Amino acid sequence: MNKQITVFSAVVIKDNKILLVLRKEDELPNAHLKWEYPGGKVDFGETPQEAIVREVFEETGVRIKVKKLLPVVQTNYWKYSWGTQQTLCLIFVCDFVKQETAAKDHHVEKIDWIEIKRVRDLDSLPGTDEILKLALETI
User: Fold this and answer.
1) Please, where are the H alpha helices in 45-127?
2) Residues 106, 57: contact at Cβ < 8 Å?
3) For each of the chain's 139 residues, which pLDDT tens digit applies?
């Protein structure tokens, strides 16, 4: 079986640090315990902008304001026990508003603000460093 999903992620920068989450997904070894931008799927009736605000808050407790959509679509293919999932990811650059406490998300092992210069050294999902470079060029 194969399926395709579309997700939205957020690049949030504060004090020369980037907001990242450590993914927790045992059933997907190629992504498990790798750093990624917070985000997720759009619920029925939501706009992508509303979804990214909700998803970032649910995963991290961080309130954001959406600035702009980056001109790139990442495509990844993930092999699960049930088949292959094609994931299309669109990325928003967002402003930090404030930090609150969030409920623990079942796909998040850890939340951290990482120094921008350290992002390239992390074990992260494909394209993380390239997306950061593009985001920095546009702000």
Assistant:
1) 48-60
2) no
3) 999 999 999 999 999 999 999 999 988 888 999 999 999 999 999 999 999 999 999 999 999 999 999 999 999 999 999 999 999 999 999 999 999 987 678 889 999 999 999 999 999 999 999 999 999 998 7
Other CB atoms within 10 Å distance of the CB of residue 124: 21
Six-digit token string for 70: 């980056």
Q: Alpha helices, DSSP H only, in the chain?
A: 48-60, 128-138
Domain 2-127 indexed as CATH 3.90.79.10: yes
Domain boundaries, given as residue ranges, for the chain: 2-127
Cα separation, 7 vs 2, whole angstroms? 17
CA atoms of 114 and 19, how far apart (whole Å)? 6
